[in-house]
Amino acid sequence: MLRCLVRAVAPNAAAAGVRIPIPVLHVVSPITLQQQTRCIQAVSSIKSRRKLGGMSYFLLIIPGAAFCLGCWQVQRRQWKLGLVKEMKDRLALEPVPLPRRLSEVAELEYKRVFITGTFDHSREILMGPRPAIRDGRYNETSTMLSTPSSGFLVITPFILADDGPTILVNRGWVSKRFKEPQTRREGQVRGQQQLTGVVRLQEDRGVFMPKSLEKVPFFLYRDINTMSILRETSPVFVDACENVADGPLAGQTRVTLRNEHLSYLLTWYSLSLVTGCMWYKRFINRLAFI
Predict the structure, then answer these.
(1) d(Cα 290, Cα 286) in Å, to the nearest integer?
(2) Residue 66 CB coordination number (10 Å)
(3) 282 near 55, Cβ under 8 Å?
(4) Which of 110, 256, 262, 270 is deepest in the core (most CB within 10 A)?
């Protein structure tokens, strides 16, 4: 059709002295089957590389688990702070008479009680070594090792008045040089005494702490059951609150608990953040350049 149009116009144009350019059509050859196959394979390869494999999902467990452990440490810290607050609230209550029933005594932990009776210094027990407690916590300049501030707690049987049972009273802390009773005779009070003390319960033995011996009057922890068997007393333990002239340092009730959960939660959250960034850079950020 184009040729017919050119022939029809050409005589007139030639007569007029006008030259008409004839367009040239470029025909593209069709794509071969082999080329189509190569294109499909290239597209499929790109899509497959954009997908995350099983190993990538497996490694995602690390930042996820670290984040969960950080959340768990937050809960543990709140729980520990709640325990400390409960102990301080119990200590702030007004003292009550010590009940004679053991079941009632078990409900009075960290509560102050009145007791009246006499000490039996011939059957005292030592517990330690340990630093002195001041203001409800251990002396920060002392350690559990052999230092000038290390000492022992003096546990003495206390015979309650009115034919009451015999209980154990933690009279307080003495330094190592006053470990023996004869070095502190002035503090070995006689006669009937009226005291205010804090009820304490059995203490759990540490993993690496040796067991208490029933025939040795020396203890590393507050093993009330073994102490009561050794000295033939009731399994009731009271921390004395008032000092006696020339006697041990009373008030050895610890109202703080080891609480390092803040450092733990910061560690776990930091680990989750670092490993999460590493995972993103390795598996997600790489896909943007494919």
Answers:
(1) 7
(2) 19
(3) no
(4) 110
Tokens representing 131 are 């630093």
User: How open is the CA angle 164-166-167, to the nearest 5 degrees?
Assistant: 120
Of 164, 139, 257, 154, residue with least CA distance to 203: 257
**Average pLDDT of the chain, as a whole number:** 82
SS (H, E, C) 157-181: EEEECCCCCEEEEEEEEEEHHHCCH
User: Which of 132, 154, 127 has its CA nearest to residue 244?
Assistant: 154
Which residue is it, tokens 């953040």? 273
**pLDDT score at 24:** 53
Other C-beta atoms lying within 10 Å of the C-beta of residue 165: 14
Domain extents for the chain?
61-93+257-290, 111-203+215-240
> Which helix (DSSP H) or strand (DSSP E) does residue 9 occupy?
helix 2-16
pLDDT tens-digit readout, 61-83: 999 999 999 999 999 999 999 98
Q: Long-range contacts: 274-278, Cβ < 8 Å, 24+? A: 275/62, 275/63, 275/66, 276/63, 276/67
Of residues 202, 200, 203, the one with CA closest to residue 238: 200
**Helix or strand or coil: residue 121?**
helix
Taking only the tens place, the pLDDT of each residue in 138-193 is 765 444 334 446 899 999 999 999 888 999 999 999 999 999 998 998 889 999 99
* Short-list 136, 98, 114, 141, CA closest to 234: 98
